[in-house]
Amino acid sequence: EPEVTQTPSHQVTQMGQEVILRCVPISNHLYFYWYRQILGQKVEFLVSFYNNEISEKSEIFDDQFSVERPDGSNFTLKIRSTKLEDSAMYFCASRGPPKQFTQETQYFGPGTRLLVL
Amino acid sequence: AQKITQTQPGMFVQEKEAVTLDCTYDTSDPSYGLFWYKQPSSGEMIFLIYQGSYDQQNATEGRYSLNFQKARKSANLVISASQLGDSAMYFCAMREGGSQGNLIFGKGTKLSVKP
Fold first, then answer.
1. How many residue contacts between A and B have a Cβ separation below 8 Å?
2. What does the pLDDT average to over B10-21?
3. Which pLDDT score, from 0 to 100, does residue A70 have?
4. Does B52 touch chain A (CB under 8 A)?
5. Residues in chain A within 8 Å Cβ distance of B56
6. CA A28 to CA A9: how far, in whole Å?
7. Are A45 and B102 an interchain contact pair (Cβ–Cβ within 8 Å)?
8. Strands B74-79 and A107-108
9. Could you read off the pLDDT of B39-91 as tens digits, one per residue?
10. B31 touches chain A (CB under 8 A)
11. What tens digit of pLDDT does each residue of A67-104 get?
12. Shortest alpha-carbon distance between residue A47 and chain B (Å)
């Protein structure tokens, strides 16, 4: 069964460093997302990506964040200068084109646990 | 105002019994989708079940069913014949029609299945 994959599974970095989180969405999917989950809290939307551009982003997704789909398979989230509060689990998700307008399941990757020291 | 409300921070259920996890939502959009995800202690998010706002019947997927009460804006998850492996966090989420599909999550319910 196809699945979303994410690398690395864990990342430890120093405050102020750049990190790149990588995702390989399900191959025939068209919509891609990043979410984050601070420890013990709910999952929060960061950004959605479709047709090689950002389609929607949340207030969390400020200038320190960027996303890219450098080739036909990878989807990356870059944090330019990490802060302590960026420590969280980051999930990538993807979905295919909806069969009906409201039918669209997002499949999540296993997550990257980021720790900023 | 919270768009997704899960009022039960924690729930206990005896193995083999059924359990209902509550979820209420708030939207003025006539077109929306409701989802339930399971998050075991290992951290991954596992899709369980989906209900569209225009669906006439309640969704079912194996031991999972969604009790969709549109007028009450509730979308409770029912797990029948609970198993020890069902112990996990459960998140209710909504996608509103006008968005690009991003999900709004509730705070989750931690379900513990007792042997």
1. 72
2. 97
3. 84
4. yes
5. none
6. 23
7. yes
8. unpaired
9. 999 999 999 999 989 888 999 999 999 999 999 999 999 999 999 999 999 99
10. yes
11. 999 887 899 999 999 999 999 999 999 988 766 544 57
12. 8
